[in-house]
Structures are given as C-alpha cells and as structure tokens.
Amino acid sequence: MDLLPVLFVGLLGVAAYFHTTNPHMVQSVRHIATGKPGCLPLESIGNVTFHYFAGRGRGEHIRLLMEDGGISYTETHYTRETWPAAKEQGLKSGLYTFGQVPAIETTSGLRLAQSTAILRHLSRASGYDCDCDDYSWCDVLALGVEDQTTKMGRVVWAADLDAEKRRTYLKEARTWIAYYEQHAPAGEPAANRGYFTSGGRITWVDFAIFNFLDAHKAFAEVAMEGDKSPADNFMAEFPRLSAFYQRFSQRPQVAAYLASERRHPYSLPKKS
Ligand SMILES: N[C@@H](CCC(=O)N[C@@H](CS)C(=O)NCC(=O)O)C(=O)O
C-alpha cells in the first residue's frame, strides 16, 4: 500500500482539527482570507443606512466607528414629529426588532437593531473586531458601559432634572468610571498602544468607552438653567482615561468628525 496518500490525508485531518479548535489558528486563517484582524472578520458590508434620531444618544459610538473605519453611511435623522410613523413602519417591516433605534440596513442585505450588536457587527467589517482571546472581555467592558448609560439616561430624561441632580449623578458615576480607570491603558508609552484590549490595536470597545466618557463630559459641561457653578471636571481625576480620551480624539478621522457639521450638537432633552 502506498503510504504517501494516507500520510497526506492524515496531515490534512490534523490541520483541519487545529484549524477548527485553535482560536489563534482560526484567527490567522481568517486574517489572511479577509485582510482584517479580529476574531470574526467579515468581508465588506457595503453602504449603511443608519436609522436614528438627529442627536448623539445611543447612535454616537456607531457613527464614530463608521467615520474612523471609512464605512459610508446615510442617516434618517428622525425627529419627534417623524418618529411615530417611522416606528410603525420599522415594526411592520421587522427592522426595528423592539420598535426602537438605532438600527441599520446595509447594501449587503444586513438588517440589525440594538446599538451594541450594531457596533460589534460593523467592527467585524472594518477591522475593529476584538481578538478571540479578548472576545468576552470586550463584552464585559461594553456591557458595563451599557449599564451606566442606562442609569445616566434615567437622570438625563427625568422631567425634574436640575443642576443638583446632575451634580449628584456625576458624583455617583465616578465609582463606575473609576472601574474603567483601573483597566485603562497605562505607562509611557501606554501599554497596548493606548487601547483597552491586549492586541495593541483599536477595537470596537474603545469606541464604546470613548463615547461613554464623552457623553458624561458633555452632560457635565452643558449649560443648565440656574447653574452658575463651573462645570464638573471629573475627567481630571482619571489620568489614564484622560490620556486615552486625548489620544482617541486625535485620531485623524475622529478629529475630523468631531469638528465637522455632521456631528450633532449635544443638548438635553426638551421638557414638554
Ligand atoms: N438597548 C437599545 C435601546 C434603544 C433605545 O432606547 N432607543 C430609543 C432612543 S435612544 C428609542 O428608540 N426610543 C423611541 C421609542 O422607544 O419609541 C439599544 O442600545 O439600541
């Protein structure tokens, strides 16, 4: 019996086994195939229609990632007036799974709701996906952002929001922000090239964390009736996060977007 084909098939079997079980191998093969790093890279997703309101809110980290990643997108810019009909239509078509936005549609045929799911999915197509080793850690960091964002939302949207309530919220939010300070890149030059995961490159969680800090900063600084005291400069208490914030905002595409007219100004919800 000729042993060569047997040996060849055996080797193929061993390679296939490692290919499907070793995350490093899987990731390397996918990197070669798509040209993109990360655990689950995707081919291009085409152009994106971004369904959201004409405001920052839960859409801003997604916009930042699309801007930095060169994903071309158009927006719906819903308002209080246009939203009810859009909601009805989005529910009917199934695009708004829970009758809410953000949601995206892509020319490659993808339809997706939920801001974190959208951010994670777009990251796979733009090379910002986390490495397989960091996959769950990225979820931990992003879900922590989500938890505190929900708490902030309750304060920001409360009908009785005033300067005192803002002060109290920001005082309490420091506990949560401090957890991110502990995990922020440190050292000189900053470890991990200044980003939150171990791979030495930017990933989608950096967008979520930057936006989380930026939303708190904007809330702390926005003018509020009857508040003459200086803005709460909470970021000064977090040196690693401040360095991360600076570094992130200086990324060329991010800096261009932050200074552009495409960026919606920050404003508190109107009291009706
Ligand atoms: N967990 C969702 C929350 C989405 C959400 O609360 N969307 C709000 C705007 S920020 C919305 O669509 N509100 C209008 C409505 O519920 O009718 C996400 O992160 O996408």
Task: Write a concise keyword list for the protein shown above.
272 residues; mainly alpha; Glutaredoxin; Glutathione S-transferase Yfyf (Class Pi), Chain A, domain 2; 3 domains; 4-stranded mixed β-sheet; 10 helices; 53% helix; 5% strand; binds glutathione
What does this structure look like?
The chain is mainly alpha-helical and 272 residues long. Helix 3 links the parallel strand 1 and strand 2. The model has no long low-confidence stretch (mean pLDDT 92). A 4-stranded mixed β-sheet has the order 2-1-3-4, covered by helices on one side. The N and C termini lie far apart (86 Å). Helix 3 packs parallel to helix 5 and helix 6 packs antiparallel against helix 7. It contains 10 helices and 4 strands; from the N terminus they run ααβαβαββαααααα. It has 3 domains: 32 residues, no CATH class; 79 residues, Glutaredoxin; 126 residues, Up-down Bundle (Glutathione S-transferase Yfyf (Class Pi), Chain A, domain 2), CATH 1.20.1050. It binds glutathione (GSH). Glutathione binds next to loops. The site of glutathione has 9 residues, from loops.
Q: What's the short story on this structure?
A:
With 272 residues, the chain is mainly alpha-helical.
**Helix/strand/pairing category:** mainly alpha
The total count of helices amounts to: 10
CATH topology of the largest domain: Glutathione S-transferase Yfyf (Class Pi), Chain A, domain 2
Question: Distance between termini?
Answer: 86 Å
Spatial strand sequence of the major β-sheet: 2-1-3-4
Give the bound compounds: glutathione
What is the architecture of the largest domain at the second tier of CATH?
A: Up-down Bundle
Hey, roughly how much beta strand do the residues contain? Answer: 5-15%
Q: Residue share in helices?
A: 40-55%
What is the number of E strands? 4
Count of discrete structural domains: 3
Q: Main sheet, how many strands, which sense, barrel?
A: 4 strands, mixed
CATH class of the largest domain: Mainly Alpha
Overall pLDDT metric: 92
